[in-house]
Design brief:
The chain is mostly helical and about 150 residues long. The chain has 5 helices and no strands. The protein has one domain. About 65% of the residues lie in helices and about 0% in strands. The chain is elongated and about 65 Å long. The relative contact order is 0.17.
């Protein structure tokens, strides 16, 4: 029984680390602010779960690393886009102007970010950095202490 609870807890911690990393990556890549309503609620919810499981520092680090990695990737993509535009040698033909359709009722910014995050999770597969996966090993009891359970 103790072993199953340990495996379940380890999986829960792994999922929490993954959620924190993904959210951080999304926030970093999109250049979003941490302190705006929806993002703050998401982050605080993750941190609360982490405190309950006793892995708050790990989750906080996963979020920070995700945010840092996302910001780096955004910068790389911006530079790549600028480089690609600089390589175009043929003349660009003028495109006909098309009037934009009238906007629907504007969605609140928070709803747009929620929808963007949902699309991000569906279309992007991120892998946790190895250092976070290695920390999961440290959450287990040593085999020597589990001899009586088996």
């Amino acid at each position: 029984m103790g072993r199953k609870n340990g495996i379940k807890a380890k999986e829960e911690v792994r999922e929490l680390l993954e959620e924190a990393y993904n959210l951080g990556y999304f926030m970093g890549y999109g250049g979003h602010s941490d302190w705006v309503g929806w993002a703050r609620e998401q982050r605080e919810g993750l941190y609360k779960k982490a405190e309950e499981l006793g892995v708050y520092p790990l989750v906080k680090d996963a979020y920070a690393r995700g945010k840092e990695d996302g910001a780096k990737k955004r910068e790389e993509d911006i530079h790549l886009g600028l480089i690609e535009k600089g390589r175009i040698t043929e003349e660009v033909k003028a495109k006909p102007k098309i009037s934009a359709p009238p906007e629907r009722t504007a969605e609140p910014a928070e709803e747009k970010i929620r929808a963007e995050f949902a699309r991000f999770l569906q279309t992007t597969k991120l892998v946790l950095p190895p250092e976070f996966l290695d920390t999961l090993k440290h959450l287990e009891l040593p085999k020597m202490l589990k001899l009586g359970e088996e």
